[in-house]
Amino acid sequence: MDWGTLQAVLGGVNKHSTSIGKIWLTVLFIFRIMILVVAAERVWGDEQQDFVCNTLQPGCKNVCYDHFFPISHIRLWALQLIFVSTPALLVAMHVAYTRHEKKRRFRNGEKIDIEELKNVKFHIRGPLWWTYTSSIFFRIVFEAVFMYVFYYMYDGYQMPRLVKCEAWPCPNTVDCFVSRPTEKTTFTIFMLAVSGICMMLNLAELCYLVIKICMKEPRKTT
Amino acid sequence: MDWGALHTILGGVNKHSTSIGKIWLTVLFIFRIMILVVAAERVWGDEQDDFVCNTLQPGCKNVCYDHFFPISHIRLWALQLIFVSTPALLVAMHVAYRRHEKKRQFRKGDQKCEFKDIEEIRKQRFRIEGSLWWTYTSSIFFRLIFEAVFMYAFYFMYDGFRMPRLMKCNAWPCPNTVDCFVSRPTEKTVFTIFMIAVSSICILLNVAELCYLLTKFFLRRSKKAGNSKQQPNHENKEETKQNEMNELISDSCQNTVIGFSS
User: Fold this and answer.
1) What are the residue boundaries of the Connexin N-terminal domain, all occurrences included (chain A) (predicted)?
2) Which residues in chain B are closer than 8 Å to A103, comparing Cβ atoms?
């Protein structure tokens, strides 16, 4: 059970997305998940081993590392990607429920074409529009929350070379040096940029859906 | 044999679950197993390497680590997820047994058997009623028991759900009392709380599913009492229609919902 399985799960949902939604999914998989797996995880792989403190005091390095990196970037990104992907499952559940209802109506004797039921692609209107729009809204909220959490936890997006630590049992103030700070800063900014692009795509999709529904309303009334 | 294989096995069971059961399975795979594999295992990866004790005494670190972490969180979670997933196999076995019986009927050339070929029997989706209802309900009951037992085991073994930074150890051969420092305590606390929260959500889903099944059972009973005059032919036709629809729906559902491959 890994990122590949998530891709299989979300691939099924893709069928009912708008074009912007499909682009968003591609960006998510190629520029975020793939980058995370093939590159970022190696960069952060030795983050604690090569976190070096200028002291012989046992336990000081552990405590300082824990103080400055309460949750590692990699774990935060993994959580962000999982949370951002899962609202799409709301849409999948809605589609499954709609199919279940049609099946019940068929069972009760209503005339529904079996072939149509098998191959139907649901258009995004009615209650499905609301589900789809809420899923995009939740995506945007999760993206924003995680971007803020990053900013708040790490005081910006730059990884410093040196951190000064005074937590017990470190004697007085101890200099601790972070492993690969420049590479980490580069990847943090890259992931932030792609996160920004994904948010733009979600906003564009939201606007598109809202405009679509607004254009349909005047046609109905005329 | 790894989590992927479990995913394949349980995906097959998914076809016969209720909607709440399907949601439960999704939560299990995405928010528990996936988090365990892609995140939690890395966090706990260096738990013994970076467990540092303030002493030069050989063996002291080993003994203290063993004393404070009798079973690692990761292993407990893996055991929990396996135990919690396996009651679903009771349902799979029951379904397989029913299919086997129908195949036997078909081979004997039984007139009552409504299927045209073996393929239809293989693809049939059974409704949760009769003995299958009892099997399904017991499986949910066992899931609840296992979840609760493991949550209690965590709480009991680690004195709560928080990972301390410092542990004071005086097991032999450590001289007097030695300070030992845990690796990544904050990150571990965050993930422990996350896994506990998702575990609780799963318990709630199981309770909801149990209530749903009980309600359905009592409703069906009262319907049967009211409809006892219905003719047997009509029931057979309904069942055939139902089975056809179930086939089609389960085929189309496989492409849509959770994408579990059977």
Assistant:
1) 42-75
2) 245-246, 249
